[in-house]
Amino acid sequence: MRQSLGPVLVGLGSFLWATDALVRVPAIAKSDPGFIVFVEHLVGVFALIPILLFRARDALFGLGSLKNWLACLFVGAGGSAIALLLFTEAFQFLNPTLNILLQKTQPITVVMIAHWALNERPGRRFHLWAGVAIVACIVLNVVEAGSADLGHSPALLKGIFYSLGASLVWAVSTVVGKKLLTEVEPLIATFWRFLFGLITLSLILLYGSGFSKMDTLFDPDYRFTYLYLGLFPGVIALWTYYSGMKRTSAATTTIVELIFPVGSVVLNYFFLGSILSPLQITFTLVLLFAVTRVSVENPA
């Protein structure tokens, strides 16, 4: 029973991630992207504190070494705060579905970084499938750029830069987090990820006057947005995904988590009017297939 529950939990976490843009994109039109991400982390920290006090109070500060503390700091500041901020900023300039699809380049970067940093040899056909995925990614962006008005091209390029930047930071964070989780409990690592992310975002907002949107915390129109983003694509999605991943093989996890990009394409089409051209749909399928092959042949 526990084994069969694994793919269900992976699928649930992936589906919750797929709903993210439905709430995040409308929120960006009304609030500051940095403040949205800040409140997500604030909600995450307050949601995790009672769980930690009940289950892992004595282990909270027992990370064991300076290296583990630095890893938590990087995962929180980089992978949680900066990457999510870049991802959120990209929605202002980029087709929401394309922004999410560009995140699927992460497995390629993860394998390359793991090969360099952890001496993990990539699979025999890694370069083939990585090349196919990169070509598909380029075509998706070229088609998007070709369909944009000349005056919107700089904004589009900025969106692509933000999106790929988020993908890169998340990929490095994945490698660091993988090493960290061999020595630190996932619940503890998750809490410090959110807390260090919250501290980083506080400094960013103080520097950029992002706290000017503080009044939206007390606006009923925003409460659902902030709570939903912080809890469902945030804490709950992470918990269900990692809980399911423990009970599921790497190959099965890779297949099931396709619910995230495929679900995003469908949901964004119906609820956000985010449309891909037939050529983009074709190369979306090529990208997802190639990245799936990379993940299956190079399991984390």
What's the main sheet like?
A: none
**Whole-number tally of structural domains:** 1
Which stretches are poorly predicted, pLDDT < 50 over at least 5 residues? none
Count of runs of 4 or more consecutive helical residues: 13
Radius of gyration: 19 Å
Strand residue percentage: under 5%
What is the number of strand segments? Answer: 0
**What would the average pLDDT be, to the nearest integer?**
87
Element-level helix/strand string = HHHHHHHHHHHHH
State the end-to-end distance: 24 Å
The helix content is over 70%
By secondary-structure content and strand pairing, the structural class works out as mainly alpha
Describe the structure.
The chain has 13 helices and no strands. It has 300 residues and is mainly alpha-helical. It starts with a helix and ends with a helix. The chain has one domain. Helix 1 runs parallel beside helix 12, helix 6 crosses helix 8 and helix 11 runs antiparallel to helix 13. It is globular, with a radius of gyration of 19 Å.
